[in-house]
């Protein structure tokens, strides 16, 4: 970004975009039987003509509430320059997440946090475009000092201070260039969730798994939790189809109480799942800890995070040894800033990060974060993989590229979540509902 | 409620009502320097002509987001009868809090939970009016079976099952009638927060405390957390003014990290506070546990809850011995239903409940819950008191009655949160912003 172009943000628009995925049971699970993958989609216009695109993922009804929250935050963004935002990004992050009146609505959780993520994702996209780099590369090229200056350490200094974080990033510089080259040539390992939604028939399950195997997939996630006998039948079918050498994960989407989770998953142990994902409430740190402890002897880990709203919840999941796999989300957490905090804490606790990427746009976004994690933080691929869901990529200007079941690093500038204007127009809800907030004259 | 009048809900209106409290620094604290006490205010109309009034409390900006969320929930309420709602209230509670698409926006936290509370508060108000009783009396007269049938035990059965809850309520029936009579004659003990907001001058502090002492107050809460030396000066001033025999509590409104909280409060130990309230993030169960453990030798307890969104967080605070005082909130938690869950868990863990009641309308609402707690659950007044703030009561049709620093049980039917229509009209934001959702024809 040259000094001459501060990129003043002169307009923020937010639109409610909904795709009718529920019609074909894509995305169906034990707690969300009929999701319509949707987004609150934000576009920032600057006086230089450069634009930033961001979104947060939703499930359909209620997206208008997130749109309303983005509008409430717009006044904190419009009128600022990109230069002043990124020169003290932590301060700007707190401005959005800790407004003296609006923080009551969270704080740092629920609708207001999803809205912050949509806005901040657009700011990060704008920054990456201003630098002419894909977001992961913007992060990889940053000084460690600059990276930690984007993180809000409030409430996490009991496990990670700014100094420790800086030290970790400096230490991880060794081999960074080789890892970047490795990613550019090989890509980051992925797993697929597209083969085994809860609403699929046995025939669909078998066909999709077989197709995926032919495409080179080796890691598969199955939705469970609605009915134990049905789960057993479906999981056995999938295990038989994919074979013993491939990896199977199961996902209950918060269906159980603590005791129920332990009993149910113990019954499913015969299909040898690597992890049970979201066994219970995402708020229940101690519950996840109890489940982890009970399932450890069976060789099954616990994964959660897609509905954990902030660094404080992740901090505790790590402190309590409640998870063996950390699942970050590019929209649930407050954008890149909050994800950086979680990546750094996970590294300190030596717990692998396996991002959540169902939904619409999440694959496009989170690939950048996990590439940064490998190149600059964890330097490790063992037990690590990023979720992939093969839905709705056709609506993006720079859709993800998967080769041999791996995410190939994006090459285009930005954060990859610009949607095709034709798609936005077609799926806007209700028709023609664009809302814009301009600078006051 | 007679069988003949099912009270079909035919209309829900929600309005954004804001009071300019920031102008005089009422309500100011270390994290919320300029709150404008506000509410999303809900009115339910029924075909019988009976109306239900409910609200959730907010701090000004962003209230429109909660209004938007109430509108999103309205379709789940309008068209139902009170009779069918209360005949399976747990089911209705889940319908609101676990909608397959909207739960993504929480779940059970933030804006969507505040909106659920506003709607459900209005349903409870309607129910109490239909029975011709104040809400506390509706609860007191209910069978234990009926009470537990209002509670969603999902995610808490590892500490409290429906059967245990029922057993506790049956056991607490002994002496219930005497406790009810005692409350009607003596009232429930209160403490005041109105004397020591952070924005007040020393002279204001001294005058307000002196006045309060003359009115019979013996328990005082002071806002702290912005500046240690300033806190010491203010707390010493207040301790000198109220004397050693009275009770002092301090409230940091989430200002500190864990280590900082311990250091800071240790310095304030000389003014002998009963509790430190909200020392850190409301999400940090393990942090509160660490603070509790460190402060126990100083005789200082930890209190939190006004920003804890659901029963799962309270469950963990109790499991981890993280709080010595549980602070329920009538609007942050999902109305009476979710508060019942917390009251029952607190009783099981023998931790006293001291409700949060700052803001607008919270005193009016929460007095009902704490009366029920004493009469039907805890049967104990030791270390128990309900917050009182002397602001904005004049806007309510049935404002709280305080005598000798005690809440006198309301006598009028309902949940006491009907606002004067003239007040609503005057403080509606922006002018004339009423939004109504009617039944589809």
UniProtKB/TrEMBL annotation, chains A, B:
Cofactors demanded by this protein: Mg(2+)
GO process annotations (BP): amino acid catabolic process; carbohydrate catabolic process
Pfam families: MR_MLE_C (PF13378), MR_MLE_N (PF02746)
Gene Ontology molecular function: L-fuconate dehydratase activity; magnesium ion binding
Domain of life: Eukaryota
The keyword Metal-binding is annotated on this UniProt entry: yes
Annotated protein name in UniProt: Mitochondrial enolase superfamily member 1
Protein's organism: Menidia menidia
């Amino acid at each position: 970004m040259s000094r001459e172009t501060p990129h003043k943000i002169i307009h923020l628009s937010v639109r409610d975009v909904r795709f009718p995925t529920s019609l074909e049971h894509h995305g169906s699970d034990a707690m969300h039987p009929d999701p319509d993958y949707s987004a609150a989609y934000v576009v920032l216009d600057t006086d230089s003509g450069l634009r930033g695109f961001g979104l947060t993922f939703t499930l359909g009804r209620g997206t208008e509430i997130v749109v309303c929250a983005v509008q409430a935050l717009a006044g904190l963004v419009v009128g600022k320059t990109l230069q002043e935002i990124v020169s003290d990004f932590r301060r700007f992050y707190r401005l959005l997440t800790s407004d003296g009146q609006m923080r009551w609505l969270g704080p740092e959780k629920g609708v207001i946090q999803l809205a912050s993520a949509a806005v901040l994702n657009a700011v990060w996209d704008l920054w990456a475009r201003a630098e002419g780099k894909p977001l992961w590369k913007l992060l990889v090229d940053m000084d460690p000092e600059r990276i930690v200056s984007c993180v809000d350490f409030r409430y996490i200094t009991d496990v990670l201070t700014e100094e420790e974080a800086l030290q970790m990033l400096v230490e991880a510089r060794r081999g960074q260039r080789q890892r970047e080259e490795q990613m550019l040539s090989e890509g980051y390992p992925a797993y697929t969730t597209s083969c085994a939604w809860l609403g699929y028939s046995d025939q669909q399950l078998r066909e999709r798994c077989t197709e995926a195997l032919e495409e080179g997939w080796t890691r598969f996630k199955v939705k469970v939790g609605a009915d134990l006998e049905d789960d057993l039948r479906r999981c056995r079918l999938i295990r038989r189809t994919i074979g013993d050498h491939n990896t199977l994960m199961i996902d209950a989407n918060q269906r159980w109480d603590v005791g129920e989770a332990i009993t149910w998953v113990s019954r499913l142990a015969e299909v040898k799942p690597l992890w049970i994902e979201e066994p219970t409430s995402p708020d229940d740190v101690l519950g996840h800890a109890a489940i982890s402890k009970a399932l450890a002897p069976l060789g099954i880990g616990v994964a959660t995070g897609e509905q954990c709203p902030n660094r404080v919840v992740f901090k505790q999941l790590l402190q309590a040894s409640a998870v063996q796999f950390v699942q970050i989300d590019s929209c649930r957490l407050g954008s890149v800033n909050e994800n950086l905090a979680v990546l750094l804490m996970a590294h300190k606790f030596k717990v692998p990060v396996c991002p959540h990427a169902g939904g619409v746009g999440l694959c496009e976004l989170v690939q950048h974060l996990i590439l940064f994690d490998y190149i600059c933080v964890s330097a490790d691929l063992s037990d690590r993989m990023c979720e992939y869901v093969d839905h709705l990529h056709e609506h993006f200007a720079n859709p993800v590229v998967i080769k041999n079941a791996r995410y190939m690093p994006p090459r285009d500038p930005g954060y990859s979540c610009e949607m095709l204007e034709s798609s936005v127009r077609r799926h806007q809800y209700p028709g023609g509902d664009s809302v814009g907030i301009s600078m006051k004259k």
